[in-house]
Amino acid sequence: MEREPMLRRKTAISYKTEEKTVVRGFNLSDMAEEGYSFCDALFVLFQGRIPAENEEKMLQYETAEFMEHSMSPSAASAFGVISGRPNLPAAVAASVMTFGSAHGPGAAHGYMMHKYIERARAEGKSLEEMGKILVDEYMDAGLAVMGLGQPQHLDGDPRAEPTHIKHEELGLDGVYLQLQRSIEKHFNERRKKEGRSYVAVNMIGAGNTALAELGFSPNAAWCIGCVCRGFSCAAHALFQMKKGRAWAASKREPMVQMLDLSMIKYVGPADRPVPTQEERQEYARKQKEEGEYKQWVI
């Protein structure tokens, strides 16, 4: 029987037959047989090319160190969601959805780097000069300079500077690392002049810089980070499923649980009687008139 599809979907990513799965022209099974790694396959998937050995080593280094960061918004989300005992993918999805401007992998730092590198070329400035321009523009506007500071590591994320060093050791340092180093230098010079403390590079600053140098777009870098941390968040959820109690509020556990009532410190309005329906109009009028309620509006 002859069959023709109603719609033909175009993709440049992959195709499969009964005999093989081909990604960007490479038979995935052949790659595995030849000893190519998961990180090699990521280069093929996102860039359509086989990486050089030093490039693959850099990606291996970064994905391994980025995979786990203990208790963080993503891990806490996985833990909290699975406490209600939905299917496991719901907890992993919730954890990955915490990634944004303040936590986890993100594309914004990469776009910032691309923008100012292009400006340096267009304006005939060095990356050293452009780093200072970037810092001044962001700080003068009251904006956070992305890629710096980590709330749990006040003296600097222990993974970040080693990532810069590995970046250099593998001979991959280029325009992105030059700009990132300039940003770190001028940011802290300005903070010192203002009498403020030193702030070290974080994993967004170090990791995204390396990924950009490897040729990954900001969004591709975001995807890679999500995949890495997704494994970790799944492990946190599985541990809670296997070792913890549902609801995460049991008083029988030796450690106070995430949702135990003793964890809550209420700082809202004091207890007050509910007005009757007859009192309602006058009560509402007085509340608006006194305005005390405004401090609780969110």
Helix and strand run? EEEHHHHHHHHHHHH
Radius of gyration: 25 Å
Q: Which percent bin holds the helix content? A: 40-55%
Basic shape: globular
The CATH architecture of one domain is Orthogonal Bundle
Low-pLDDT segments? none
> Superfamily at the CATH H level of one domain?
Cytochrome P450-Terp, domain 2
List the strand order in the largest sheet. Answer: 1-2-3
Report the CATH topology name of one domain. Answer: Cytochrome p450-Terp, domain 2
Structural class: mainly alpha
**CATH secondary-structure class of one domain:** Mainly Alpha
Distance between the termini: 63 Å
Strand content: under 5%
Mean pLDDT: 92
Q: Describe the largest sheet.
A: 3 strands, antiparallel
Please provide the count of β strands.
3
Number of helices: 12
How would you characterize the overall build of this protein?
This protein has 298 residues and is mainly α. Among the domains are: 13-51, no CATH class; 108-217, Cytochrome p450-Terp, domain 2 (Orthogonal Bundle), CATH 1.10.230. Helix content is 52%, strand content 3%. It has twelve helices and three strands. It has helices at residues 28-33, 38-47, 53-66, 73-82, 88-96, 108-123, 127-140, 160-169, 175-193, 203-213, 218-243, 280-290, and strands spanning 14-16, 21-23, 26-27. It has a three-stranded antiparallel beta sheet. A hairpin with a 2-residue loop joins strand 2 and strand 3. It starts with 13 loop residues before the first strand and ends in an 8-residue tail after the last helix.
